[in-house]
């Protein structure tokens, strides 16, 4: 009971205690529903519920809690004609802004890195137990939480003063003398251009 009180006191020290609680609950809810899946009448109901919870968490984290708790925001433009598919907004762009609360930052980053790791453990367990349908569900969860974590990680490392272009997830390193790698990197832009 003492741990719960300490955690509650820590949440109250946040700059946005309600939003931090919603953020942490959004990360925990799909995990709780997955662990209590035996209570659902069918796997289809469990699958739909968890995917909807993951989508809600993805949206809230990417568009609301990331902006308020750590002052970071990212989005991916799959229709971009150049290699800059990520766009970032960061507190580093602005000269003076409100400081980031260390409690908000610590709990945000811990939850961002811990959630995909837990889903990855569940994926390994599904493989070992040969549960294919559950593996598909866990793979969706791992990819959604991992993609969001990767976007925020890139946004946090982005330096707006060093480069005005954003990083690309699919960009290959330029190695002198290996022109075939450049051709391989253009492979993605070919498919992006054919969608229009």
Automatic annotation (TrEMBL):
Chief localisation class: Golgi
Top-level lineage group: Eukaryota
Subcellular localization, as worded in the UniProt entry: Golgi apparatus membrane
A Pfam cross-reference name: DUF846
Coiled coil start-end: none
Keywords noted in UniProt: Golgi apparatus, Membrane, Transmembrane, Transmembrane helix
Functional summary from the UniProt entry: Golgi membrane protein involved in vesicular trafficking.
Family assignment from sequence similarity: Belongs to the TVP23 family.
Protein name from the UniProt record: Golgi apparatus membrane protein TVP23
Organism for this UniProt entry: Nakaseomyces bracarensis
